[in-house]
Amino acid sequence: MTYNKALNSYNQMNVNIDRPEKLILMLYEGALRFANFAKKAINEGNIEDKVKYIIKTSNIFIELINSLDFEKGGDISYYLNGLYAYQLELLAKANLENETKYLDDVIRVLKGLIEAWKEETGIN
């Protein structure tokens, strides 16, 4: 029964994502949300939540890196690969040093990516 519920949820998500561009936007927005949660957790001294949300944010950046198409994307793909990899470094530093300043940089970059992606794709 659990498998069927999971499959139905997956199929429902696929129906709601009619364009791959929307999925990228959802990943950016999810990463932004999780980075903000991680920052809040650091400010509150909640180590467990900090780690959980930094891992979630990192996993999104890893998925974004894995989705890059270097043949079709050319220079943009290489640029994004470096940008995403740097965000992973900042997330690791935020986790290790328990510092929100690194998350502030990640949040700033994500906001810029969201704005640029919406402008480029026309998705809101």
TrEMBL record:
Locations listed in the record: Cytoplasm, Cytosol
Presence of the UniProt keyword Chaperone in the record: yes
Name recorded for this polypeptide: Flagellar protein FliS
Keywords recorded for this protein, A-Z: Bacterial flagellum biogenesis, Cell projection, Chaperone, Cilium, Cytoplasm, Flagellum
Primary location: cytoplasm
Similarity comment: Belongs to the FliS family.
GO cellular component, one term: cytosol
GO biological process: bacterial-type flagellum assembly; bacterial-type flagellum-dependent cell motility
Pfam name, any one: FliS
Origin organism lineage: Bacteria, Pseudomonadati, Campylobacterota, Epsilonproteobacteria, Nautiliales
